[in-house]
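Chapter review: from sequence to fold.
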Amino acid sequence: MTKRLRALEAFLLVMSTAVMPLTPALAQSKPDPKVVKECETISNKYDAITYSLIKGLPLDVPNRDVAQRELFKLDASPNILIECGYIDAKTWKSIKSDYSKVITSANQTLSNIVSKYKILPEKTITCMSKGLKKEVTSTNPKCPKGFKKLY
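The token string follows.
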């Protein structure tokens, strides 16, 4: 699966650099709004939040380095996104399905890494009991016995 993903990414990289103008003088033609909208819709499906969550893990998270190495090895990074404003309609038709597959595959890779290493965002709640405040930070925080959730 990773070979196929890399092949699709290479194809998209070549196509995106081929359609991007080299000078501002070549960028005079206006992009097709329909193409830009479709391209941005697919690009917005990329799970950038999960990517940044894995990439920015704190040092004390178990398996932090292993998860980050796997992320970089599988190359599910945002560099797979293409510049939507420079694609003409003919080129877009030829790469649309491949681009959608690459984004879907990258999101699947990200979710696999999260489920494998149990990387979940932490939440903090404040609990109170008899004038004593206590903050609880966890992926699924719950107040200790005798405390009630404040906010």
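Two observations follow directly from the output. The first strand starts at residue 123 and ends at 129. The chain has two domains: 2-120, 121-151.
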